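An instance follows:
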Amino acid sequence: MPLMRTSSSSFPATPDLTSEIPYVVRVEFAHLSRPPRSSLVSRPIACYKCNGFVTDIDQILTDEKIGRYFICQFCGTLNVVEGSPTVVDNDTDISMEVAPTDGVVAAETVMPSGKSFLAVIDVSGSMDGVNIAAVKRSIATSIDSLAANAPTTLFGLIEFSSEVGFRNLDSGDFIALPPDTYASLEQIKSATEDLLEQIRLVPVGEKASDIKRHIQSLQVGGSTALGPALGMAYSLTRHREIGRVVLLTDGLANNGIGSFEGFLVTPPKKYYHDLGKWFLETGTVVDIVGIASHSGLELKTLGVLADLTGGTMYYVTPNELDFSMSEIAGERLLARNVEVRILTPPGVKIRDASGLSRLAVEELKASRTTRLAAVAERDEIHIELSPESTIEAQEIPIQIQVEYTDDEGARHVRVMTKRFRVARTPEELLKTLDPEVGATFVTQKAGEESFEGDVERGRLRISEFRASLKKQAAIAPSPVKARIEEVESVLAEEEAEMVRLQERAASEGMAEAAAQDMFSAAALQQKRRTSGEMFKKKKKR
C-alpha cells in the first residue's frame, strides 16, 4: 500500500479531460507503518521557497559563477547548494530534531503518542437505567481489550452532570472543577491547571480492575454540563499527551458554556468549533458517541469536534454501544500532529479535497499544506488536481510529504515522489484508470455535503459520478471496464443507503431532532469512508 495512489498513472494535459472523471491523488496513511525504501537522519536538499525535495542527483548542476545549484522541479526557483548534497529516494523517511517544548507539557507526563485515552462520560439524570448500564458494560469491555492488546495505554475519566470532575482511578476521589468556572473557558483552563497535581492517567494493564470498579460505581443525576466537561478535557490535553478523547452522552448540553439553552456570551456553535480547532492544535482526536434520544443531542453542532480532529461520530442505541466503543478502543493512532503537503509544478491546481474538514480543505487549497490531529492505519485523504491550461511538458512530478510525530515522540517526514506521463486524450487516461480512487473521493465529498445539511446534493454527486463511469466504460479497455462495473455497483449501494436512512426516519416517525442526529452521524462516517471499507468488503463477498 503506497503513500500516494492516483486515479490514473497518466496526468491530464488539459482541463476538459477531467470533466467526466476527476483526477485524484490519494494519501494512504497506513504506509507510515511500513519500512521506507530509504532513511535519512540529516535534512536533504530542499527548495527554500516551496520546500520541495530534490529527488535526483542529476538535478544538481554546476555554474562557474554561482557554484552548485538546482532549479526546483515544482516552483522553478533557483537554489544554491551548499555542503554535501543529499537527495531523497521516491519513498524516504527523514528523521527530524524535535524542538524543545514551551513548558506546556510537563516532562514527567510525556507518553508515547496515541497511547492515551480520556473518556468523558455523561452521568446526568437522563442516563439513568439502560443507558448508564450500557456505558458501564461497554467501557469495561473496552478496558479488558486494551489491557490484553495495548496494556501500556493510559486511561483517564471525566464525569459530568450538574458537576464536572476528574476521577482519580487510584483512590476513587472525585476531583471537582469549581462550578463558578463553568461559564468561561478561560476560568475552566485556569481551574484545571490548579488541579493538575491531583490528575493522573493510569496504565490499563496494571489498573484494569481499579478502572472497572470505578466505572461500575458511577451514579447518575442532575443536569448536563457537557461544555464545561469538554473544556476540562481540552485543558488537560494542553498539559498531558492525550491522543484520544471520547465523549459519551445522551442529552442536550444545558449547563455552563456550550449550553443549547438560555443566553450565553459564547454561542454553542462557536464554542464547539473553536474547541475543535484547539484540540487539533494539541494533536488530540475527539470521538463522539451519542446514545439515541427523542429530544435530540445536537450532534450536528457537536460533530464539528470530530470533524476538525479526524474523529468518528456514532448515533447508537444502548444495545449498539459495545460495537462503537470496541471500534474506537481497537483503533491505534499511527501518528499525531500530522502535516500533509503536496507539491506539483506550476500550472497544476488543487481543485478540491476530501476526508478532511472544510477548514482543512480550504487550508490545503490556499497553501498546499494541511494539518490533522492524528491518523490511524485506516485513514486516507483525497486531493483533486486539475491542469489550469494545456500542459506542454511530456511528464510532471508530484511529491507528497507527510510530517508527523511517531509513537515514541520522534518527528519524521515521509516523502514519496512520482513522475507522471502527460495524457493528451481520454483513451490515454483510461488505459490506467483506477476507478476506486475517484469513487472514494466522491463518496467522501457526498458525506461532507450531507454533514453540512444537503443530503440530496450528496446523493446527486454519487449518482452523477455513476453515470460518468458508465459512459467511460463504453470506451475503456476490458480490464478497466470490469473494474468500473465493480465500482459502480458499490456506489449504487452507497447511494441506496443514503435513501434508506431517509426512509427509516420517516417510517419510524422519528422526531426531527433525533432524525437530524442520525443523519449527522451517518454523514460524518461517510465523509471518513475509506477505500478499504468500500471495496475490500465487497471483494470478500
